[in-house]
Amino acid sequence: MKFKKLLYSLLFFMLHTQLYAKQQTFKLATAIQSNMVVQQNKAFKIWGLAEANEQISAQASWDNKKVTVTASVNGEWLLQLAVPKAKPGDFKPHYIIIKHTKGEVKLDNILIGEVWLCSGQSNMEMTMLPAPPWHKGVLDYETEIPEANYPNIRLFKVKRDTSSSKTIFVDAKWQVCSPETVGTFSGVAYYFGVDVFKKLNIPVGLVLSAYGGASCQAFTAREVLEADPQLKKKYLNKYLLQPDSVILTNKPSLMYNKMIYPLINLSIKGILWYQGESNSWDRGMYTKLCSAMLEGWRSDFKQGDLPFYFVQMTPFNWNKKSYPLNEYAFFREAQEAILKVKNTGMAITMDVGEPDDIHPRRKKEVGQRLAKIALHKSYGFKDINYLGPQYKACKIKEGKVLISFTKESIAEGLRTKYGFSPKHFLIAGEDKKFYPAEARIQGDKVVVFAAEVKHPVAVRYAFQNYPVTNFQNKSNLPAVPFRTDNWNE
Questions:
Q1: What does pTM read for this prediction?
Q2: Do 12 and 20 contact (CB within 8 A), yes or no?
């Protein structure tokens, strides 16, 4: 009797599934639209829903080769078109014709170039124009926006949304970059795109999928969290047991399901990531969490070890008294540890923060520094410096500490802004008490000392919550925060 009931249930499910598929109207995944940029030199995937077993074909004007597939019994389909390598200076618009049983769809004004996924929380989302009351717009937006006439840069902004299950549809529209469209787009992503476009002279597509206040676990697939016992215990089980005790932006996988999963068939060049404020108390697990999120994305996109370039947190005082003196510094250290993952890079922002505002306005430098990383590491422009002074080693002699830096990060030499001595160096003896130190640039090294510490054993640089720094190299790239010790607080 139980077997018959099970059989009837199975037959009903299959019949219902087939009936649903037959009633399915033809739909393209919303990432596929007119005005988009198609990633050069990679297979371009087109996907969506249709009737069960319906035939769908696609043909692009760049080669006129027709590709045909048949939808599954569930109405799902996906086909791939070969895409040539982009030629510098070639901005010829293309079209794609997609045919199905009951009609056809024509996509116009399509360019072949480079596509970057830009994700994270509010500082990635922060628009060029002011958005009262939470931010004042990027610095100099009044003069920057009127100059944003870049018809060969295309913008795709995914609307903030969440879902408890995966979907292939998002609320977004591909737009041509112009003074009329850029105002509500990410400042960081825009400035990144402009510099890459100017250097490569090929079209650039920017896919923005960011959510203010979002945690890293919210952008991580549930399967990824479940696969690791530590991540499952900390991020998944906690919220499953207490689903109403946390704010939406901290709930696992909700942004991934609605804002990342719908994009995983899109061919891209790489990923930009600006997130961490909502995980700033979580330094013990953030390296593991963010690395797992990245590996999950790379697995989903099926395009190898996609470049992942992220922004280290800017100085912020967290209302000063409510936050320990260097908690944020330890979190930045956890971010830096992500660089151990293959094909990653980190933009330093210690000189462009606003300690009283978690949304600093100087987004141009942030976007440009991400572009420098991409141009150097992804596009092979080895003459473009992308890294500020990076700690290598130290020597202690006669009460002073001599700090040396990696050769690549010194670039054309060390300097400070406005010619003042380097700020925010601290020095400590065996008692582990740190004192403000004097620092002097000597050639390609820095000498650090303090009258209070006769026998130094450790130096820290910019290792506090909100030090706005002035130490950099002659490429105007700020030094990476560091410490020579491994002490706990």
A1: 0.94
A2: no
